[in-house]
Amino acid sequence: MSCSHFAKAVALFVLAFGLVLLAGFGDLAAAGKADEAKKAHEALKNAKDAKDRTAAAEQLGKLGEVNYKHAEAAIPDLTAALDDKDAGVRAASAVALGKIGPDDKKALVEKLTAMLKDDEDDAVKLAATQGLGYLGSDAKSALGELRATKKGLSDMKGKFARAIDAAIRTIQPPAKKK
Q: Given Cys at both, which of 23, 52, 57, 139 links 132, Cβ 3.0 to 4.6 Å?
């Protein structure tokens, strides 16, 4: 075997070995994220402190946005948390569910639209708007309420108005100019 053939064989072996290691680390990382999701789900269900439940919902949203399977088991509890007595938990759950995009998007759009319209807390209304925006075109039925809410705002350039505009653009992107 010539020196160049030997070098190619060694390089190929090193490359193959590296790919095997990389695949193994990917599996470890996925397992770690699944464990993180399980812990966050338990905290959402069992934590007495609203701040802990809020943090758990936020974590589930982040994990579920990347990989639906990580947060899938928590969807019923996140949905229940939309009715939590604490506004922070409701808000975090609204955004998390929008990021995760559960199978029953129609029911979620209806719930988030009702929260936008009826919740007493402005942070929850903002979060419901963001959740609808994350759902994109699946939230088309919420466009009327989003537009009506914006019309009723006194500050058309504030954070809430900008969030409504962003959600509307995500749900119904502007037509491309010719």
A: 139
